[in-house]
Exocyst complex component 6 (inferred by orthology to a C. elegans protein)
Amino acid sequence: MDGSSVASTKDTAGESSDTASTSYQPFPEMSAEQEFFLYELETTDSGSIGLVLRAIYDCGDVRKFSRALEHRIHQYDKNIQKVCSFHYQGFVDSMKELLLLKERCSDIKHDAAAIDAQIQAASEDLSKKSEEIVKYRKLVKNATTAIDQISVCLPVLENYAKLQELMQLKKYYQALKVLEELEHTHLALVEKYRFTQILGKTMSPVRNEIKAKAYSEFKDFLENVKKVACRIGRHASKCTAEQHSFGVSEMERARRLQQEAKQKCPDVEIAVSADGRLLRKNTSNGAAAVTASDSVDQLIFSKFICSCQLMIYDVIKRQLAISVPKFEDQRIDNERSLTNCIIVYYLQDDEKVSAQDLIDFTPVHRCCQIFNVLGAKEEFDVYYRQQRKDQCDLVIEPPPKMNSLKHYVDYLDEIIGFFVVEDHIIITEPTLVTSSHKDQLWESALKKIIHTMNSRFGGCPDVEMMLRMKKVILLFALTMKSYGYGIAPLYSLLQNFRDQYNEILMTEYCAQFERDLEKDNYAPISVENDEQFRAIIKDFPFYKRSMEQEPFPRKFPYSRFVVSAYLKAKMYLQGCLKFMEHLQLTQSEMDDTVRR
């Protein structure tokens, strides 16, 4: 009875639910247009609702549409209540069934736990019996074997096992010693047993196997050297840079020199008198005129001005047609950063290790010992030198693309790492590598390096890049020198780059001189106040008697071009001298270069 009533209720509710979801009773006052709007709101997506609402407002009958919408909502609420009433009894029945199922699961869980406990107890007993059986069988077998055979052959088997263990541990030198002991001592005592003959046959190729393994380890060592050569070279360059103060900037170096000069020199101030003479201001004696010995700086300055004027006029006469150079402020900033631009690359790495930490030299020492025991030391010496020569040829071969400074640094660092490893080996194994072999490798590498630099970098038109490359090559030379390698050809290479650098620098400054000359109005410089006067004096230290006493506006006996030419000439000479630093040039050679 209850079931039939519930079923009929479900059928009725289902029919009403289906009807509610697909149809509705229209509102008596609802027009066809409002009916269409309600249908659009129910069926359209969220992106088009705005268009429907806009159409409703355009019609003007918003209140009537609102009443129709409320009526539609009320109808849907009734349908929802019918659906909830329909499913309520089913929900109650489901909860009752779940409670019954919970009780049954609890009973099953208790039964399963009891069965599991019984199985565990039986399994433990069975496991103990099985372990005892296995144990006694092993004891019987071992006892029988020990009584029958192994008691006589135990030393041979122990040494043979030791030999196999040493081979697995790659201790080939100790394995050779054990092999000699087996062949000359233990095998002679058990020759009557057949297994000793088989054992002797298995031990006969051990020497060749050890030899092959030694060669294999040495090849792995060469591969590791190739992998870490760049890191070893970078670490060596870093140490050299710190030793030679490559990491100290020009400003820091100038500050230190200034502090040392202040400590050594007396407290003297220089002033300009009304008639243009230099006066010394002592804190104790007041002002005193500068003597003839004190006018050396003024004389040098006058000679420098004359030399600059001759050079400027000579440049103007040549009238070279070249491209516009870089801005001067950019060049100044770049030159200030050149000292650190290479060292930052070396110091950015946090490596605190040496060549011995980066690579294990044990395979080389082990090979020397093994081949010495095998009586083939000369064979390994020849093989080592040939392999290192082949590896050197690969290292000094430049990569196909060297477009940036980092490529050149990595190329030179790898070469440094190669020769640092060679230097360490010649120290630890002097019989393996001779000085003549090392010098021969270095000479071939040096020729290839110079050829690579001339062919890949010789035509570089960028003075900033050339200055950076000069520092890279100089650091490379100093690093190799610290390991005892000759670096005279590298200084010759830098001197050749110096001439190219000076020519490019001259070409750029010639263009700047010509451009400034074309822009010059050839009118004397006129200043309106003391600040402008001091600024001109700072750029071009020109002094004239009683000039400071003249009223403003004051006029200098030269145009803006003279000041610009003086500044650019000074910057040009500074650039030339910057490139010539640490090139092992005499003072006369540096003077000749500046004079040219």
